[in-house]
Design goal:
With about 280 residues, this protein is α+β, with helices and mostly antiparallel strands. The protein has helices at about 25-30, 45-60, 70-80, 125, 150-165, 210-220, 230-235, 265-280, and strands at about 5, 10-15, 30-40, 40-45, 85-95, 110-120, 130-135, 170, 175-180, 185-190, 195, 225, 230, 240-245, 250-255, 260. The protein has two domains: about 5-120, D-amino Acid Aminotransferase, Chain A, domain 1 (2-Layer Sandwich), CATH 3.30.470; about 125-280, D-amino Acid Aminotransferase, subunit A, domain 2 (D-amino Acid Aminotransferase, Chain A, domain 2, Alpha-Beta Barrel). Bound molecules: N-(5'-phosphopyridoxyl)-D-alanine.
């Protein structure tokens, strides 16, 4: 069975699936997306992902290409037809195809594309392994709460991090506070043991994994604060970690080559990885 992609109403062999050269996603990054993790063939927290997609579309005045329940059905169908158990489904909606002009086209229909990708099953052992990050300036636009495909600054920072031998980059704003990773949210544990992650405003993407972890944190009665934290606080943190649909929870054990805490995944992040594995590891 060939791997399929969904493009505007059709399930096509992935290798030959195409959108038009004048798609506005391609020309202007005039498009939004979601990446939904799959465990055992089921989507992790689909309501939150489709809720965030709805918000991105509304803020950019792009219509839903198909009703929400139809989009959910298409995503489920593609995952089933591709036989994916562990991995993710990628959903992209652009403003559509029109002759190139910055203004919104009068009559374009939004384009809908979906693909799936297999990954290794969730593994608390892998999730619990520490990674190193580097710090890079955050040169993105000021609406990072919208999940648009305009990701060039993220791409550049990620490559920079890899070139430096790190797993990812954490991005630093002009005030010297950390916004987020290139495709993940950033967390620290302060000296007194308080979890800190940045407030979900226009400066960051409000991660679905971030929200899931906040649920776990509340359930466990752990102390936490949603607020910006500085580079200095991060470097002095007892523990640090990142969260995303594709990386779950990953302990951060080095920042710019300096160890975080004792340079090993700490007790709090290990506890959260275990709680996450229990809640979302096998759906
Ligand atoms: N990115 N911040 C940014 C900038 C992101 O791109 C992402 C996710 C997150 C975490 O969000 P979530 O927990 O909903 O995955 C935070 C996806 C995975 C991507 O672009 O591939």
């Amino acid at each position: 069975m060939p791997r399929l992609a969904y493009v505007n109403g059709r399930y096509l062999p992935h290798g030959g699936a195409r959108v038009h050269v004048e798609d506005r996603g391609y020309q202007f990054a005039d498009a939004v997306y979601e990446v939904i993790a799959l465990r055992g063939g089921r989507q992790v927290e689909p309501e939150r992902h489709f809720g965030r997609l709805d918000r991105s579309l509304r803020e950019l005045r792009i219509d839903w290409p198909v009703p929400r329940h139809v989009m959910r059905f298409v995503a489920e169908t593609l995952v089933r037809r591709n036989g994916v158990r562990d991995g993710y489904v990628y959903i992209q909606v652009s403003r559509g195809v029109a002759p190139r002009d910055h203004a919104f086209p009068a009559a374009a229909r939004p384009s809908l594309v979906m693909t799936t990708r297999r990954t290794r099953p969730f593994d608390a052992g892998v999730a619990g392994r520490g990674v190193g990050i580097v710090l890079r300036p955050d040169i993105r636009w000021k609406r990072r709460d919208l999940k648009t495909v305009g990701l060039l600054p993220n791409v550049m920072a990620k490559q920079d991090a890899l070139d430096a031998g790190a797993f990812d980059a954490w991005l630093v704003d002009d005030a010297g506070t950390i916004t987020e990773g290139t495709a993940s949210n950033a967390w620290i544990v302060t000296g007194p043991g308080v979890l800190v992650t940045r407030t979900a405003d226009a400066d960051i993407l409000n991660g679905v994994t971030r929200l899931g972890v906040l649920d776990l944190v509340r359930e466990a009665g752990l102390r936490f604060e949603e607020r910006p934290f500085t580079v200095d606080e991060a470097k002095r943190a007892r523990e640090a970690f990142l969260t995303s649909s594709t990386n779950w929870i990953r302990p951060v054990v080095a920042i710019d080559g300096d160890p975080v805490g004792d340079g090993e995944p700490g007790p709090l992040v290990r506890r959260l990885v275990a709680a996450y594995a229990e809640s979302f590891g096998a759906v």
